[in-house]
Design a protein that fits this description.
By secondary structure, the protein is an alpha+beta fold. It contains three helices and eight strands, in the order ααββββββαββ. It has two domains: 43 residues, no CATH class; 140 residues, no CATH class.
């Protein structure tokens, strides 16, 4: 009898945790009685954390000590909120891979917060935002060449609706043109 009673308790706990999880994530709607078992468990479950992903960028003339082949590089990154009704608040940072002498690889900019309305997009490119519009504790980037990652943080309620597309264009010293495009469901792999 004790064995059956123990498995019933375990089953009850599993059901309560699952219901609390779905209530917190909006999959089940309804009222929870204050002070009930579900309400008490729900208070103990942390809210989902924001999702962060990185997207590569490269800008300016390569060659020399940059580690990039000689040529001129340009990146365009588009961040799209595909949700039809929810606004997405997105935090952006740059993590540098090749900075100017005043920086070390891995230096990160201050956060920049942007709002994407439903079914809208934001473009980041070398000519405008990368890295000029980002503030670094060590001051502005002094070299014309830089690369690294754009760190994109999105709240979990809309993260699965965020799509990122990037295009890198390279022009070689002889004028040869090469480009690559990728589409990234940036936060799908996180299971959020």
């Amino acid at each position: 009898m004790a064995k059956k009673e123990g498995s019933n308790n375990l089953l009850t706990i599993v059901i309560i945790v699952l219901v609390a999880y779905f209530l917190l994530n909006g999959s089940i709607t309804g009222e929870v009685a204050k002070g009930s078992k579900i309400d008490n468990i729900a208070k103990q479950i942390p809210s989902p954390i924001p999702a962060t992903d990185g997207v590569f960028f490269i800008c300016g003339p390569g060659g020399g000590d940059t580690g990039a082949e000689p040529g001129t590089y340009s990146t365009i990154i588009e961040i799209v909120n595909t949700h039809p009704t929810k606004t997405a608040t997105i935090e952006l940072k740059l993590a540098l891979g090749y900075p100017s002498p005043a920086f070390t690889p891995g230096d990160t900019s201050k956060s920049k917060t942007v709002t994407l309305n439903p079914s809208s997009a934001l473009k980041l490119d070398c000519a405008q935002e990368l890295p000029k519009e980002f503030e670094f504790p060590g001051g502005p980037i002094a070299t014309p060449f830089t690369n690294g990652q754009v760190l994109i943080t999105v709240k979990p309620d809309v993260s699965k609706f965020i799509r990122v597309q990037g295009t890198v264009t390279a022009t070689g010293p002889g004028g040869d043109l090469a480009f690559g495009t990728w589409l990234q469901d940036a936060f799908e792999w996180l299971g959020i």
